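Is this the right way to post structure tokens for a design question? Let me know if I should format differently. Anyway, here goes:
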């Protein structure tokens, strides 16, 4: 037996968390949920690779990856090759939303977490031994907190690095927060959180600072292009707006900045 449902009592749904089903070995079939699943799920890839399509990104994930999918969030996933074996736990409960808010959880996320399989097996064993729903609730709580603690520790810094590099490479073009988030492989809301925690600013303010820094270098270069050309090269379509932003960031106008450094 690789799938199991825990026992349920009349009061089970009063518990902070409750498990609906656990699987330790599932030959994963294509799954298409345009309206999302009715319950939350933590899925672990045991073998092979899967392609996951979320509204804001498409990613290919391999063995050893743990994945969180929030109920009601549109998702579609399928094998990337001949093999796609998963293990998973589906759950819900009145405490779930509070836990998600505490960890600032995204509706879809993933992290390298090989130890997640052991936690799924522990939850399976509790259900198999006919443990009380309260004991099973403790197992799923441990699984959820382990997942989000690991995700926040190891998945976020690389995404922030990708986002910053994307801005540095594309500051001359018309890019949006959505473009930056897509390049980093995360959602816009997570992007804002990463910049807040890691840079103490917003993605928009970071982009603006990069543009003004590059504008200052152009203004002082030997080429000395006119102000309207500096604005264009630094991603500003309106020269007046560029001058306003430049003054706000440096305390002086572009022309005065040039003259004061020559």
């Amino acid at each position: 037996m690789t799938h199991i449902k825990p026992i349920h009592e009349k009061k089970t749904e009063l518990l902070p968390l409750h498990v609906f089903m656990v699987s330790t070995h599932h030959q994963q079939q294509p799954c298409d949920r345009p309206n999302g699943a009715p319950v939350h799920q933590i899925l672990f890839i045991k073998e092979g690779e899967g392609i996951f399509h979320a509204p804001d990104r498409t990613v290919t994930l391999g063995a050893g990856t743990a994945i969180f999918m929030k109920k009601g969030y549109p998702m579609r996933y399928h094998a990337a090759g001949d093999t796609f074996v998963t293990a998973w736990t589906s759950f819900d409960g009145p405490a779930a939303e509070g836990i998600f808010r505490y960890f600032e959880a995204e509706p879809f996320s993933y992290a390298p977490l090989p130890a997640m399989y052991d936690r799924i097996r522990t939850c399976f064993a509790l259900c198999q031994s006919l443990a009380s729903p309260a004991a099973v609730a403790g197992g799923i709580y441990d699984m959820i907190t382990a997942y989000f603690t690991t995700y926040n520790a190891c998945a976020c810094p690389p995404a922030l690095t990708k986002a910053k590099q994307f801005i540095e490479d594309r500051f001359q073009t018309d890019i949006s927060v959505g473009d930056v988030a897509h390049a980093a492989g995360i959602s816009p809301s997570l992007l804002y959180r990463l910049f807040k925690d890691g840079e103490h600013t917003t993605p928009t303010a970071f982009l603006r600072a990069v543009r003004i820094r590059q504008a200052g270098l152009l203004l002082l270069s030997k080429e000395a292009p006119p102000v309207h050309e500096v604005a264009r090269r630094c991603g500003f379509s309106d020269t007046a707006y560029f001058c306003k932003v430049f003054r706000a960031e440096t305390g002086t106008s572009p022309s005065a900045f040039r003259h004061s450094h020559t």
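Format looks fine. Someone answered above. Worth noting: The mean pLDDT is 89. The chain is about 45% helix and 25% strand.
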